């Protein structure tokens, strides 16, 4: 059994502190920015990529070594220096203040792990091995990407729109469940071209209109 509880976290507008400015830090920062967090970066040296983000004012940069107290007020912390003793100090401070921390060189010390993930609009598929093999996570990701192709973004949006309409227009939960089951299990999602995708979307709405009237 895994000790990690999977969940989806909204970090938009939250202060996330990254200690360290190397390649791993850059990857973490880019992901945090993608989800619109407010990133504070603490490191004496940073990569060119991170320097670019500082110049574009995308992140707040404090050019210094980590000191105790730096984590106060953070929502999430990433200890990603190449110095295990410093990462450990960050871990201790975070634990003292009950701030969630990810420690790059120690999955077991981390409160949370960043999974490998696939995004198709609102559909997210995340894979984790509890840090035992990021390489396996990455392989599985590639396999799943082949099954859940980009077209799923639009399929999920249509499912969402139909669900919203059905909640208003189909009073019986049994009927709604039948509809959702039909849309997900019976309509074949053959969507390997835009033309086929459009045909599937049309079919989904047709199913909705016909089941609504029953
Ligand atoms: C998913 C992804 C998210 C992200 O970081 O953004 C991620 N690692 C990614 C990339 C990546 N990771 C590594 C390389 C170099 C190549 C290699 O060595 O493999 C590359 C680059 C690449 O593959 O391109 C190696 C590596 N990873 C960790 C250590 C430290 C250690 O194990 O001690 C070492 C050094 C091991 C060593 O020195 O040998 C630790 C972690 N990496 C995790 C996540 C967490 C566990 C996930 C899980 O449970 O499976 C965990 C525990 C911590 C965490 O939460 O960060 C991201 C995108 C992958 C994708 O999506 O394709
Ligand atoms: N989680 C992952 O996915 C993953 C992947 C590969 C490696 N790692 C681990 O992550 C760590 C960092 O890897 P990297 O390739 O980014 O290293 P790196 O050497 O490129 O960068 C280390 C950074 O830490 C900074 N630093 C050093 N001491 C500091 C201090 N006291 N305070 C603040 N910043 C300090 C340095 O200035 C530098 O910017 C390593 O321990 C490595 O084993 C993790």
UniProtKB/TrEMBL annotation:
Record EC number: 1.3.1.76
- Enumerate the UniProt keywords alphabetically: Lyase, NAD, Oxidoreductase, Porphyrin biosynthesis
Pathway(s) it belongs to: Porphyrin-containing compound metabolism; siroheme biosynthesis; sirohydrochlorin from precorrin-2: step 1/1
Reaction(s) this enzyme catalyzes, per UniProt: precorrin-2 + NAD(+) = sirohydrochlorin + NADH + 2 H(+)
Q: State the organism of origin.
A: Clostridium aceticum
User: MF terms per GO, please?
Assistant: ferrochelatase activity; precorrin-2 dehydrogenase activity
Q: Which domain of life, per UniProt?
A: Bacteria
One of its GO biological process terms is:
siroheme biosynthetic process
State whether keyword Cytoplasm applies: no
* Official protein name in the record: precorrin-2 dehydrogenase
């Amino acid at each position: 059994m895994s000790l990690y509880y999977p969940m989806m976290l909204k970090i938009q507008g939250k202060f996330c502190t990254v200690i360290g400015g190397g390649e791993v830090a850059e990857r973490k920062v880019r992901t945090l920015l993608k989800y619109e967090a407010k990133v504070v970066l603490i490191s004496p040296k940073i990569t060119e990529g991170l320097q670019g983000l500082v110049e574009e004012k995308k992140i707040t940069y404090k050019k210094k070594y980590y000191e105790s107290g730096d984590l106060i007020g953070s929502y999430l912390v990433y200890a990603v220096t190449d110095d295990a003793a410093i990462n450990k100090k960050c871990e201790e401070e975070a634990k003292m203040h009950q701030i969630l921390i990810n420690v790059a060189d120690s999955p077991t010390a981390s409160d949370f792990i960043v999974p490998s993930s696939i995004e198709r609009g609102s559909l997210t598929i995340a894979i984790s091995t509890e840090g035992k093999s990021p390489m396996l996570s990455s392989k599985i990701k590639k396999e799943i990407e082949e099954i859940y192709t980009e077209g799923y973004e639009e399929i999920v949006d249509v499912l969402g729109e139909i669900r919203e309409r059905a909640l208003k227009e189909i009073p019986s939960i049994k009927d709604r469940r039948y509809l959702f089951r039909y849309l997900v299990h019976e309509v074949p999602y053959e969507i390997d071209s835009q033309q086929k995708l459009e045909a599937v979307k049309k079919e989904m709405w047709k199913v909705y209109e016909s089941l609504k009237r029953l």
